[in-house]
Amino acid sequence: MKPIAKFYTALLMIFLFAPIAILLVFSFNEAKSLSVFSGFSLHWYQELLRDSETIDAVKNTLILAVSASLISTVMGTAAAVGIYRLRNRYLRSTLETVTNIPMINPDIITGISLMLMFVFVGRLFGAHTSLNFGTMLISHVTFCLPYVILQVLPKLQQMDQALPEAAMDLGCTPLKAFIKVEIPEIAPGILTGLIMAFTLSLDDFVISYFTSGTTFQTLPIRIYNMTKKTVTPKMYALATLIFFVILALLIITNLMGANNAQNVQDSKRPKARKGSLPAA
Amino acid sequence: MKKIVELKNVTKAFDGEVVLDHIDLDIYDNEFLTLLGPSGCGKTTTLRIIGGFETADEGDVIFMGERINDMPPHKRNVNTVFQRYALFPHLNVFENVAFSLREKKVPKAEINERVTEMLHLVALSGFEKRSVASLSGGQQQRVAIARALVNHPKLLLLDEPLAALDLKLRKDMQKELKNIQKATGITFIFVTHDQEEALSMSDTVVVMSEGRIQQIGTPIDIYNEPTNAFVADFIGESNILDGVMLADYKVRFAGHIFNCVDAGFEPKEPVDVVVRPEDVDIVPEEKGMLKGVVTAVTFLGVHYEIIVDIGGFKWMIQTTDFVDVNEHIGLSIDPDAIHIMKKSKYSGMFGDYSSFSDEMDEIGEIDGEELAEAESETAE
Amino acid sequence: MKKTNSVKGQRSLIQRIALAPYSVWALLFIVVPLIFIAYYAFTDLDYHFTTENITRFFTTTSLVADGEGTREVRTYVLIFLRSLKLAVISTAICLLMAYPFAFLLTKAKPRTQSILITLIMIPMWMNFLIRTYAWMTILQDTGILNGLLGMLHLGKVHIIGTESAVVIGMVYDYLPYMILPLYSIMAKMDERLIEAAYDLGCNGAGVFRRVIWPLSLPGVLSGIEMVLIPSISTFYISQKLGNGKFYLIGDAIEGQYVANNLHFAAAIAFVLMIVLLIGMAFLQRAANKRVAA
Q1: CATH number at residue B94
Q2: pLDDT at C8
Q3: pLDDT at residue number C171
Q4: What does the pLDDT average to over C145-162?
Q5: Which residues of C touch A119 (CB under 8 A)?
Q6: How is domain A42-267 classified at the CATH fold level?
C-alpha cells in the first residue's frame, strides 16, 4: 500500500478501535472513574462474577440463541429447498418479497409489529402479560430465517442441476438423492446460515427489547438496563470478556481453515442486505 | 435384432411449446445410436424421457417390452453420462464410481473389484483417491463413463458428453467411446449437435429438427441419401437447387438437363437437387455442363474450397485444383453425384452459399445451445 | 404430475413439505404483524376505527426555546425531520469515509485485505449498546477526550448532548455496514474494465466517473440502505449521546411503548414505515436510472 493509504487505514483503525481499547483499559481500573486510570485491579471482574443477574442473562442469551438458530436453520434450509424448486413464478416472487421484509424493515418496526400481535393475541386469550420466552423465540427465529435462506438458496442455485438427477440415475430415490447429494453440496451454506443466525440472535437488542417482557432477560437487555443507571466499570469488564471471546472464536476459526473463517466472516455480513435475495 | 427401446407417438410440450412432436423410434440391442440435430430440436428431451427425467405428455415409452412411462429413473436399468459430467464434488473418484453399487448394498469386496475393473476400462487406475475437482476435463469424462457403466446397464445415455472437451481430446474420446461400446456390448444412445461426431461413431443416426425425426439411417445413407433439404444441409456441405424431374433419370436444374440415377417421381415434379461440393469436377469453361465465375477461394490444406457464381446461385466446390478469383470455369457433374429429394417445408431455406460463413454458424450454434438450455430450465 | 409415482411428482411433494412450515411462519410472523401495525395505528383503545393517531402525529405541537424566545413547532414532524437530517448526515459521512477506504483495500495484498476486513468486523461483533456507551465515556465533559485536550492545554470541548455527538455515534456504529458492501462490490470489479477505460482514452478522473463509480453503485446503494435505515430508526444512540435532548423518531416510538400508548406507537411506526418504503423505492429507481444511463 502507498503511504497515504497506510495513513488513512491507520486513522480508520484508530477510530474503530479506540473506544474498545478504552473499555479494555478501564475495566482494569482500580477506582470507579471512567476517565482517570488510578491503578490496576481485577476488582470489577470479581464484581461481575458476583452479579447473578448478568450471569443469568448470559445463560438466557445462550439458550435463546441456540434454540433460535437451530430452529431457523432447519426451517430456513427446508424453505430454501422449497423456494428453489418452486416453478410458480407468482408464488416465488411473493415468497421472496416476504422473506426480504425483515431484512429491509428497521428492527424497531419488526419488534413493534411482533409485540403488537403478541399483545393482541394475548388479550384475546385473557393473558395479563403475553410477552415471555416463547414470544422472544418466535421473534428471533423470524428475523434469523431470511439470513439462513439467503445463505442456502445461492448454494442450491450454484449447484449443478444434473447432480440430483445423476444420483437418481444411479439408483437413488428423490429423497435419498437429496440427502446424499444435495445436502453435502449446500452444507457450507447451511453452516454459514447457522453461525449467522446464532450471532444475530446473540447480538439482538432492539427486537428483543420489544418482545421480551419482564420474565426473560438476555444479555443485551441486561446491558441496556445497566446503562440506564450510572455505569460502573463492571460493564467494561463484561465488554472486555465479550471482546476476548470474539477474538478467541475468530482465531480458532482461522486455525480451522480459511474456508471456515470465510464462513464466520460472511456470517457477520451486515443485516438489511436488501435485494440480495437472488432472483433465479 | 432385439428392440430394446421403443418410443411410440411420444409428444412433449413445455409451457405449451411443443418440443417433441409425435416421435416414433425403435432402438435395437447392441446399437450405437446417435440423436443428431441443432439446439432445440428435441434430442435432449428425447434422451431425458428415456432416462426418466421427463414424462411424455402423450405416447408410450417401452423398455424391453415393458411400458415405463411413469417409472422413476432410479428404477430404470438405464444410466446416463451427463453433459457436464455431474460428478459428485464431495466424493472422490472411487466413491463416485461406487455410488450406485453402495446404493444397491453390494458387498464391499465386490464393490472394490467392480470399481477397479471399471477404472481400468477407462484407463484411470491409480486415480481412486483423487478428488474429482483435481481431474482434467477428459479424466472427469472417463469417471462419468465408469460411474454410469459400473452397474452394467442395458442402455447408456450420453448427453453431449464431449461438448466440453477440446478438439484433439474429443477425437480421442470418440474412438475410446466406440471401443468401450464394442467391448461392453451395451446399447449407447448418444446426443450431439456435431454431425462429424455422429457420422464417425454411430451405427444409426437419427436426425431431428423442430421436435420431429427427419431421417433415420446409417451414417452412409444419411450422407448420401438425405431425405430433405434440412438433412442435406445439416450433414456435410451441400449445394441444394430447385429442379424439375423431367422423366425417370432426367432432371433439369441450373438451366441444364442432367442424367441422374433417381426415378419414380411424377412427370414435371418440382424437386430439390443435392450436389455435394466434392462431387463437382472443374473443367475448362467450354467443356462445362455449367459455366460460372469464381468469387472466393479458401485454402484448407487438403483442398481448396471455392465459391462459384452460376447464374446468381453460389455453389460451393471442393477441389485440389487451384483456380483464381474471377476466373471463368466450367463444371461437370456425374449422374451418381446428383441426389434428388422430394420438396419439403425446408425447401429453399438452405443450400445457397451466397452469404456463406461457417464460423458464424458455429458461434450462433453455441449461443443458441446455451439459450435453449436456459429456456428449458425455466420452462420446467 | 398426475401420479406421485413419477419423479416430478415425488419431488414436488418433497418441495411442498419443505416449504409449508416456512410459508405458514412467514405469513403468521412477518405479514400478519405488519397488518397489526396498520390495525393499531388506525384504531383507538377500544379497537374502533380512528384516524386520530395519525392526525396526532402530524398536528401535535409544543413550545421550544431558541435564541429569541419560544416558538411553537409540530412536535413529531420536527422529530421526524431531525431523524432524517441526522441519518442523512451520518450516512453521507460514512460513505465519504468508507468509499476511499474500500477502494484502497482492494489494491492491497490479499492477506492484508482479509486481515483488515476481519478487523473491521470485530467492532460489529461487539454489542452496539456497549460501543455506543464507550463513546459516551469518551465524549463526556469530564471524559477522556477532554482529559486529553486538557493535558495538551487545548481547552475543553462540549460535545455530549449535541447533534454532533449523535452523529459520531451513528457513524461509529454503522461505518462497517458501509465498508463491507462497498468492498465486496469493488473486489469483484474486473481490473480489465479499468484498463480498457484508460486504453480508450479516459484520464484518472474520467475512469472514476465513467467506470468505477457506476460499477460500484449497487454497493453504494446497499451501503446507504444499511446505514440509513438503522440510523433513522435508532433510539439508543440519541438517548446516550444526545443526553435525551435530541429525540429521534425511534425514541418517540420507544417512549410511547414504555408509556403503553401502543396505538400511537403503532401510528408513528406506520408513518416511518411508509416514508422508508417510498424513500427506498425512490432511491432504487434513481440508481437504476443512473446505471441504465
Answers
A1: 3.40.50.300
A2: 62
A3: 96
A4: 83
A5: 262
A6: MetI-like fold (1.10.3720)
